[in-house]
Amino acid sequence: MTTPVIPTIRPVRPEDVPAVVAMVHELAEYERAPEQCHLSVDQLTSALFATAPALFGHVAVDERDEPIGFALWFLNFSTWAGVHGIYLEDLYVRPPARGTGAGRLLLATLADICVRRGYQRLEWWMINWNPAAGFYASIGAEQMSEWVPYRLSGDALNQLAGQATNVGTRTGD
């Protein structure tokens, strides 16, 4: 009997991007929305490795240093607490690697970043039928049922943006 190899967690490298993009598409398929996923290698590379990136990522790798899971995240800010936090955009572990601890290690890495930097929150959304809810509860994550997510996109986003014509001098665009 062989001892299972514990995955290693490290920041995403440029050579990992094709595997991460493939896993994002696998996640979209899992979440029954593959037609909504349009992420490309160029897009993710530009986002992760910009001069001042707003997106960050970590991968879980196997003993051959091949990505088997990933976490893509960015900073948010709590005006009430007055500090940043991490918003986890996506967490995914490939099915053959589930049960290896990769997901827990990815979350532990982000929790460690929060603690070391003085951030008070690590937050994410989960589709309501995802069986990972039990795992999240087991690590102490709390479901935020009193907060209702909203999204503005497509035509509605464009229509509202059109109402910004009387905005004074724009800064930071």
UniProtKB/TrEMBL annotation:
- List the Gene3D superfamilies hit by this protein, alphabetically: 3.40.630.30
User: Which keywords fit this entry according to its UniProt record?
Assistant: Acyltransferase, Transferase
What is the official name of this protein in its record?
Answer: GNAT superfamily N-acetyltransferase
Q: Which residues form the N-acetyltransferase domain?
A: 7-162
* InterPro entries per the UniProt record, alphabetical: Acyl_CoA_acyltransferase, Diverse_Substrate_AcTransf, GNAT_dom
| Record keyword Transferase present | yes
What is a GO molecular function of this protein?
N-acetyltransferase activity
Q: Which family does it belong to?
A: Belongs to the acetyltransferase family.
Keyword Transferase tagged: yes
